[in-house]
Design a protein that fits this description.
The structure holds two protein chains of two kinds. By secondary structure, chain A is α/β, with parallel strands linked by helices. Chain A has four helices and five strands, in the order βαβαβαβαβ. Chain A has one domain: 3-Layer(aba) Sandwich (Hypothetical Protein Ychn, Chain: A), CATH 3.40.1260.10. Chain A is about 30% helix and about 15% strand. Chain B has a single domain, classed as Hypothetical Protein Ychn, Chain: A (3-Layer(aba) Sandwich), CATH 3.40.1260.10. Classes of the chains: A alpha/beta, B alpha/beta.
Chain lengths: ~120, ~100
């Protein structure tokens, strides 16, 4: 998956958006990586799918809206957002109203995806 | 071929997520609270073994936390062994 000799990176977000600072740190890393023109894709795994909740509003608890940050990813040329389909079902996330377009993957596809990158970075 | 480092107890989402992704051909290194998954006779250890991945325990952490038994099916490694694994596996996923 390396393009132009650059190393490909998959950022794996596994935590809910407001329960800790990990989701924000992960998204900041995604944007910083893209800002340096490095190839980066995103995977929301396990509790990470909760970052896609359509009606979230972090401002009510004094935090930036993670959903809005996700919706800005295409502006940074981050066009591949992969999602753990089983977790989406478990939490009944309405993916059709999620802030960003995603591709659902089952467990086998998740492993294949992860094994195709030069670097994995988990948050 | 993914090197998984599991640094969370078996009750955690990190443990479940790691199990859901790990496959035969991968390796899992238990470190920190992750070594509790290697307590012999526990369901956590059975579940780990069922994935078919190579299983390693970081011996300093295991001994510090009182996981003393060389659990069947697990391999003890020290820091040098851990570094060797990172050379053998091209990519690593940290579960914590």
């Amino acid at each position: 998956m390396a393009a132009n000799g650059k190393k490909s990176m998959l950022i794996v977000l596994r935590h809910s958006p407001y329960g800790s600072s990990l989701a924000k740190a992960g998204l900041d890393t995604v944007l910083a990586t893209a800002a340096f023109s490095q190839p980066v894709d995103l995977l929301l795994l396990g509790d990470g799918v909760l970052q896609l909740q359509p009606d979230q509003d972090g401002h009510r608890i004094g935090q930036k809206n993670v959903g809005r940050q996700l919706s800005s990813l295409p502006l940074y040329d981050i066009n591949h957002v992969y999602v753990d389909a089983e977790a989406v079902t478990r939490y009944n996330v309405d993916i059709s109203r999620a802030p960003v377009d995603t591709r659902m993957l089952d467990k086998e596809e998740l492993h294949q995806l992860m094994a195709g990158y030069d670097h994995l970075l988990g948050f | 071929m993914i090197l998984h480092t599991l640094n969370a107890a078996p009750s955690s989402a990190a443990f479940e997520d790691c199990l859901s992704v790990a496959r035969s051909g991968d390796a899992i290194v238990l470190m920190g609270d992750g070594v509790y998954a290697a307590l012999s006779g526990t369901r956590a250890w059975e579940e780990l073994q069922s994935k078919g991945a190579e299983l390693y325990l970081l011996n300093s952490d295991a001994l510090a936390l009182g996981v003393m038994q060389p659990t069947e099916g697990g391999n003890w490694i020290d820091m040098d062994g851990f570094v060797a694994l990172t050379e053998r596996f091209p990519r690593q996923q940290a579960w914590y």
